[in-house]
Amino acid sequence: KKDIPVANFITHEIHCSRNIEVCRYCSELIPKSEMKNHIESEHVQVTCKCRMKIEKCLLKDHEASACPLRPAVCQYCDIQLTFNKLQDHEIYCGARTERCGGCGHNVMVKDLKEHPRVCG
């Protein structure tokens, strides 16, 4: 799958067909001598901390963007918790009130960003 000089094509094609294999899982070109190791190290099923079974090569992406136990930060108080608890926490946390220094009213934390427009 690379450009090679025409003069070397037949030799190159013979070498590739003898020594290179396409991985049946990810379609990468892997030396035949390393295929078993590639499959065992990249495509073996592992269990995430959320108990989901996933291929090892996909685990980092899962942990970063799909795992319900990935770290998440509350937009109101900056506390870190797991993603699956974030929504309930932010509903509670955003409903807390703080006194506005300008008008003296108690304002819900979730409305503090917009409050200066209507304050006073």
Topology readout:
Layout lengths: L8 H11 E3 L6 E3 L3 H8 L2 E3 L5 E3 L3 H7 L5 E3 L6 E3 H12 L2 E3 L6 E3 L6 H4 L2
Descriptive notes:
The model has no long low-confidence stretch (mean pLDDT 93). The N and C termini lie far apart (68 Å). The chain is elongated. A two-stranded antiparallel ribbon has the order 1-2. The protein has a two-stranded antiparallel sheet with strand order 3-4. The chain has a two-stranded antiparallel ribbon with strand order 5-6. It is of the alpha+beta class and 120 residues long. 1% of the residues are buried. It has 5 helices and 8 strands. A hairpin with a 6-residue loop joins β1 and β2. Keywords: Acetylation, Metal-binding, Phosphoprotein, Zinc, Zinc-finger. This is TRAF-type zinc finger domain-containing protein 1. One of its GO terms (molecular function) is zinc ion binding.
Q: Which characteristics define this entry?
A:
two-stranded antiparallel ribbon; two-stranded antiparallel sheet; 35% helix; 5 helices; alpha+beta; 120 residues
Largest sheet: 2 strands, antiparallel
Number of helices: 5
Helix content: 25-40%
Shape from CA axes?
A: elongated
Provide the spatial order of strands within the biggest beta sheet. 1-2
Oligomeric assembly: single chain
- Tell me the strand percentage band: 15-25%
Mean pLDDT over the full residue set: 93
Number of strands: 8
Cα separation of the termini = 68 Å
Structural class: alpha+beta
Q: Tell me the Rg in angstroms.
A: 27 Å
The SSE order reads: HEEHEEHEEHEEH
Identify low-pLDDT runs: none
Pfam families: TRAFD1-XIAF1_ZnF
GO molecular function: zinc ion binding
Domain TRAFD1/XAF1 zinc finger: 78-120
Protein name: TRAF-type zinc finger domain-containing protein 1
